[in-house]
Amino acid sequence: MSTIVAVMVAIPACLAGTNKESLGDGVGGTNSVKRRGLRDRSLKRNLTGGVYNLDSEEAGKTTANFLLTPLRSPLTIARYGMASGSARRGGARLANLLHGYVNSSSSSSATSASWSQTGIAAGELAPFGARMASNQIVRNRMKSVKSIQKITKAMKMVAASKLRGVQGKTEDSRGLWQPFTALLGDAPGADAKKKIILTISSDKGLCGGINSTSVKFSKALMRLTAASGSDNQASYVVIGEKGKAQLQRDSRKHIKMFVTETQKLPINFSLASALADEIMKTVEFDAIHLVYNKFQSVVSFLPTVATILSPETLAAGSEVGKLGDLDSYEFEGAETKAAVLQNLSEFQFASVLYNAMLENSCSEMGARMSAMDNSAKNASDMLEKLTLSYNRSRQAQITTELIEIISGAAALEASS
Amino acid sequence: MSAPQGAQAVAQVAKGAAPYWRNAGMTYLAYVNACSAHVRNCLKEPFKSQSASREQIHYKFTEWDNGVPSKPVLRSSNPEE
Fold first, then answer.
1. What are the transmembrane regions (chain A) (predicted)?
2. Does position A136 have pLDDT exceeding 80, yes or no?
3. Prediction ipTM score
4. Burial call A69-79: b when 16+ CB within 10 Å, e when fewer
């Protein structure tokens, strides 16, 4: 007996396929003999199918012989029913466990208790005796995980190809602001009364934490300004939907301007200068802090603050440092030092903004790539686990049913 | 015309020239972009159409006042889309 069971556990999946439902139906203890006969036929069908698929013929034939013996006494029928009942309950417990795993619902002890009372286990969607239901749930879940995985993979590919396009542009644009920094230096701690914190974020999500980092840095700058003196004030200018969504929660009073849809067309210098003009026209400032994610590699981004001073601030500070050398030059025409500095400041703003927007969109693509890569990996892990549990429960079901059959047959044998 | 007079004339023209666009309300950036648009217009094909995309802009901006957004304004090279 035990050897047969061992062989049966290893039966390939084909046996499980077709006749499971007919096996499951009508196995209650109160079955009429007529139904019993019907059931016996379906058993035979099932088993013959099994024998053909079985390699170890001897074991298969033995089982078949057991089953082909007809039912004899009412006592046997009763025993048969008891045996199958207990076996089914075993299967139900497995199903409950699986169900708890899938929906992360709780307390299998409670469900099994109610199972014995009501006939339908709590949390079980299927009626009494239908054993495939929980497997169906897992299969649906597997299907949805698979399709999500497909989507994330596609998103990763799209981000990768976009990144390639924008990365070259970004690297080229670095040449625009580097001379400015060489000439003017970067003055993040510049003494300015009115500050703009220009937060650059993305319009779309699913790109890791890059938007949160810009927002976090912007808020820190805001606090820093507030702490530096009571007459100092800062306001936000936000580029990108996601940064706005985070900032408007607790600092909407400080938002002065919000720009979106900047990435609908490829980012170019015309766009950056139009935006810079718009900002300079709308908001008064002494200094602008641009907060963005500088692109380092596909997996690393540096949250960066670039500072641009207004022409007046620039002129006030120009006596010291390299700008002081401007005095030793002669200006063409009527260009005064102030006019030159104004032009310079405007151009610097546009260049730095251009670079910052490109860097940020580059970082966005990189972050999206790695985020989507991770989620595709997670999906395949999940799929693996689900497949394992699915197969395991299916096998358990098969085993249960085989035990049912065999014990029934053994009971017949014993009574004959 | 003597040399100093000529220099003076040049200086006067230059004096007038520099702030023209500024007087007209243009910022340096608007001036730069207008100039570069003209340069792009002088290009021959296929470079002309290649560089045309560099003038295309599209963005939407909203002014906020004391936590209340005003109506968004769309600035686009092809607003009909």
1. none
2. yes
3. 0.80
4. eebeeeebbeb
